[in-house]
TrEMBL record:
Gene3D superfamilies: 1.20.5.4130, P-loop containing nucleotide triphosphate hydrolases, Ribonuclease Inhibitor, Winged helix-like DNA-binding domain superfamily/Winged helix DNA-binding domain
InterPro entries linked: Disease_R_plants (IPR044974), LRR_dom_sf (IPR032675), LRR_R13L4/SHOC2-like (IPR055414), NB-ARC (IPR002182), P-loop_NTPase (IPR027417), RX-like_CC (IPR038005), Rx_N (IPR041118), WH-like_DNA-bd_sf (IPR036388)
Domain of life: Eukaryota
Lineage: Eukaryota, Viridiplantae, Streptophyta, Embryophyta, Tracheophyta
Residue ranges occupied by any NB-ARC domain in the UniProt entry: 178-327
Annotated source species: Setaria italica
Positions of the Disease resistance N-terminal domain: 13-94
Example of a GO biological process term: innate immune response-activating signaling pathway
Name of the protein in question: NB-ARC domain-containing protein
Domain Disease resistance R13L4/SHOC-2-like LRR: 515-876
């Protein structure tokens, strides 16, 4: 498939260009005599990238172009390998010294000049075979910064129908004022100069309109637009300047995304009479990015007027007919309907007609073949933007029907260089999440588990969709999926860059010298296995052993420092690794390090050299498994001084406060990008506890804080010191506290972004300010977190709480009561192994209650509770 080869080549060249640009800035290249060659490579990659963005796959030259693009792909791989090797060498003092001896300089020069020669040969081929076929449209990679924000269709699925309109002022007023089940959307279509702007302007300024509506906004969109600026302008005009200022303060220290603005507008416009004009809308994409700011169903008099000169923006009268024809062709098959629906979402009416004609006729006959369904999925794949195709094909590295963690997947995309940052102030993770949700909106992957905020935690790939990804990847000949049936000949292919092993040890005989990612899925080992960190994996970027169901050994990590290109390292939980070698400091490009539940107790000082590190997740196995978790040894890791230099770090867990020096603890406050922090302590000194609290208070970007202690209940510790915070953490969304806590710190009640709180072994006498948190969705009180006889949910308490969990209570708690007008959004009550001698009272006061789970323990008045549930309008 030439289209796939084109998108893969474009992505890889873009990644290689980033490395070449960095290499070109290194003055050491002058001393080594390769500066001009690197500059040439950098310039040629820029031109190559532009060529790929504007190349069109024509019928006549598809095969020739595909072969040429595969050569470009291999060149991009080798260029990145070569220049990264150069960059790695100049970062290591010992290697840099070696570079200045005659032999080493000669080897570097030969490799770089060989790359230069290959680029010149490819340029000659392009001219010889006349491969330049430029498109007359803008590349999907260059459509504007609305690609930066998450595709809102993944979050707000309903879509209003735009109705074509060219009528005078009175009739426009009638249309905008007519009642509907939701918002009214009217479009005015025509070429420039026909009064598309004048007519709605007259209506907008009319007295009659201002008598019917309360909130107004006029937004000029034009061809050159910024979705973020439009959304901010909508907030200012519809909700007032103060609303925008409050939103900016709430997200101070983190990137403000379009979703944040959209959520605010939707929430505040519920039930409001608003009138909005979007003047001069040019593209379907622009409308798709803006429309979800307006509630679909709850606003009886909400109205949006769109002016446009593009007929496709205002869907014409053939829309319903074409949709009916497409649905008939899909034959009622869920996979076909969902996949085609995701494809249609961002297309115009003419493209709908084209897609209708391309659908295989077998689908409509009621007993379609699998091949017909594959044609539908392939059609959707062919219409993916070029930046999404490599991300989609990457899914074939996972087994069929495997539940894939979103965070695991996007971190691997980042390590592979698939994620490209635009002009917006967002992190690599934000962009990667945008790619992920766009694949969901196009129905190429399916959400599996969601968190309390509705964010996707895990996903799956439909069997047929997975088959398509495997087929295309095999055609491209750069991915090898190894199982017990894999032929030996396949293991020696030089072009293979990604290897995934399923329940086999056949990697022993493979040529791994050019492999960039190695993924292992296996059952517990029976007998000895080959070492996993092999010297021949010298070009490896990703080593993923998360799903290798055997314990990694110390020997598997001893030579890790030789894998100088490594960016992602993930070991399976409960490994037998007892120390991290100092050679870890050689991995200057490492972004993700995940070795949880190991046997080592501290990080080496060399870890502070890893300036690109973004996620550091290490913990140790508790030493006394036979005892209660409150008395077992700390699962935290001692971190060295110098951690403050890791300015890209976003996730850090678990830090052992007791065994980490006070100076190292203070340095945690310098990690200004940190979003998640997990710490553990046991018998900590007051000075260390105070140092931690002072550091944590500086983490303005922190979204998740998890603090646990192991000291006896009568001793004060780091949790008690949390009350010393002088201001709240502005972005904090999740809070976990474990250990004795005399009271909920006052600042917690001011963390307005909190959505989930877990409290364990805290022995609180009251919940205090938690009851007034405006966005709290889930509250989990575990193992005697609350230590009073009654837990009463008072009037106006917990306005957004949906989920309440009470687990493992053996202390004073006897009764849970819900008063009138409390917790109006409560949906789920989950109680496990609690002794509630006076039962649960007042569930009739929870209008949205859907589920009550009771497991184990003692619960009084169960018959009465069942009767109340039966009388409840939702019958929980």
């Amino acid at each position: 498939m030439a289209e796939t080869a084109l998108s893969m080549a474009a992505t890889l060249v873009r990644s290689a260009l980033g490395v070449a640009s960095a290499a070109a800035r290194q003055e050491v290249g002058l001393l080594l005599g390769v500066h001009d060659d690197i500059g040439f490579i950098n310039a040629q990659l820029k031109m190559m990238s532009a060529f790929l963005r504007t190349t069109n796959v024509a019928e006549g030259n598809a095969e020739v172009l595909k072969a040429y693009l595969e050569l470009i792909r291999d060149l991009a791989y080798d260029t990145e390998d070569c220049l990264e090797e150069f960059m790695v060498s100049i970062k290591h003092p010992s290697m840099l010294q070696q570079c200045f001896n005659l032999g080493a300089r000669h080897r570097i020069a030969i490799k770089i000049r060989a790359i230069k020669q290959r680029i010149q040969e490819l340029n000659q081929m392009r001219k010889m075979y006349n491969l330049i076929q430029l498109t007359d449209t803008i590349s999907d990679d260059m459509k504007g910064d609305f690609q930066v924000t998450r595709n809102f269709a993944a979050l707000y699925i309903q879509e209003a129908q735009l109705v074509g309109f060219q009528r005078p002022k009175v009739e426009l007023l009638e249309m905008t004022s007519s009642k509907t089940d939701g918002r009214k959307v009217v479009s005015i279509v025509g070429m420039g100069g026909l009064g598309k702007t004048t007519l709605p302007k007259k209506v907008y300024d009319s007295k009659e309109l201002h008598e019917r509506f309360v909130n107004f906004a006029w937004i000029t969109v034009s061809q050159s637009f910024s979705i973020m600026e439009i959304l901010k302008d909508l907030i200012k005009q519809l909700l007032g300047e103060n609303s925008l200022e409050d939103l900016l303060k709430k997200h101070q220290g983190v990137t403000l995304l379009g979703k944040h603005c959209t959520d605010l507008l939707r929430e505040q416009l519920e039930g409001k009479r608003y009138f909005v004009v979007l003047d001069d809308l040019w593209t379907i994409e622009a409308w798709n990015s803006i429309q979800f700011a307006f509630p679909e169903h709850s606003s009886e008099l909400g109205c949006v007027v769109v002016t446009t000169r593009i007929t496709e923006v205002a869907q014409n009268a053939d829309e319903d007919k074409i949709l009916d024809e497409i649905l008939k062709k899909c034959g009622g098959l869920p996979l076909a309907i969902v996949t085609i629906g995701g494809l249609l979402a961002n297309k115009g009416i003419n493209e709908w007609k084209s897609l209708r004609d391309q659908l295989p006729s077998q689908l409509a006959r009621g007993d379609p073949s699998v091949e017909a369904l594959k044609q539908v999925v392939t059609l959707s794949y062919n219409h993916l933007p070029s930046h999404l195709k490599p991300c989609f094909l990457y899914l074939n590295l996972f087994p069929e029907d495997f539940e894939i963690s979103r965070r695991h997947l996007v971190n691997r995309w980042i390590a592979e260089g698939f994620i490209s940052i635009g002009t917006a102030q967002a992190t690599l993770e934000d962009f990667a999440d945008n790619y992920f949700y766009e694949l969901i909106s196009r129905s190429m992957i399916q959400p599996s588990k969601l968190d309390v905020q509705g964010n996707v935690k895990t996903c799956r790939v439909h069997d047929i969709v997975h088959d398509i990804a495997v087929t295309i990847s095999r055609q491209e000949n750069h991915v090898l999926l190894v199982d017990e049936q894999t032929r030996t000949a396949a293991l020696t292919k030089e072009s293979i860059r990604h290897v995934s092993c399923f329940g086999t040890r056949k990697w022993n005989g493979m040529d791994l010298s050019r492999v960039r990612s190695f993924t292992l899925f296996s059952e517990p080992a029976r007998g000895p296995i080959a070492p996993l960190c092999l010297p021949q994996l010298k070009m490896l970027r990703v080593l993923d052993l998360k799903n290798a169901r055997f314990k990694a050994r110390q020997q598997d990590i001893e030579i890790i420092g030789l894998l100088l290109h490594l960016k992602y390292l993930h070991f399976h939980s409960e490994s037998s690794v007892y120390t991290l070698p100092g050679s870890m400091g050689n991995l200057h490009g490492l972004q993700t390090l995940d070795i949880r539940k190991s046997n080592f107790a501290s990080l080496p000082t060399e870890i502070t050299k890893l300036q690109d590190l973004r996620s550091l997740r290490c913990s140790r196995i508790r030493q006394f498994k036979g005892f209660s978790s409150c008395w077992s040894d700390s699962s935290g890791i001692r971190v060295p001084r110098g951690m403050g230099s890791l300015r890209e770090l976003q996730i850090l867990e678990k830090v052992d406060i007791e065994r980490t020096s006070r100076k190292a603890i203070k340095e945690l406050g310098e990690l200004t990008q940190l979003r998640k922090l997990v710490v553990r302590g046991r018998g900590d000194s007051n000075k260390k506890c105070k140092a931690f609290c002072e550091a944590a208070e500086k983490l303005s970007s922190l979204r998740s804080l998890n603090v646990g202690t192991k000291e006896p209940l009568e001793e004060a510790g780091v949790l008690d010191m949390l009350v010393s915070f002088t201001s709240p953490l502005p972005c904090l969304e999740r809070l976990k506290l474990k250990g004795f806590l005399q009271q909920v710190p006052a600042w917690v009640g001011e963390c307005v972004s909190l959505v989930k709180i877990d409290l364990k072994c805290c022995k609180l006498k009251e919940l205090g300010a938690l009851a007034q948190l405006p966005n709290l969705i889930q509250l989990r009180l575990l193992e005697d977190a609350y230590d009073a006889e009654k837990l009463v949910f008072c009037r106006d308490a917990f306005p957004k709480l949906r989920i309440l969990s009470l687990h493992y209570y053996n202390c004073a708690l006897r009764e849970v009561t819900f008063e009138q007008s409390t917790s109006p959004n409560m949906e789920t009550i989950d109680i496990k192994y609690c002794d509630l001698a006076s039962g649960i009272n007042g569930i009739e006061n929870l209008p949205k209650l859907k589920e009550v789970y009771i497991q184990g323990g003692i619960l009084a008045k169960q018959d009465m509770l069942k009767e109340e549930a039966g009388r409840h309008r939702n019958h929980p």
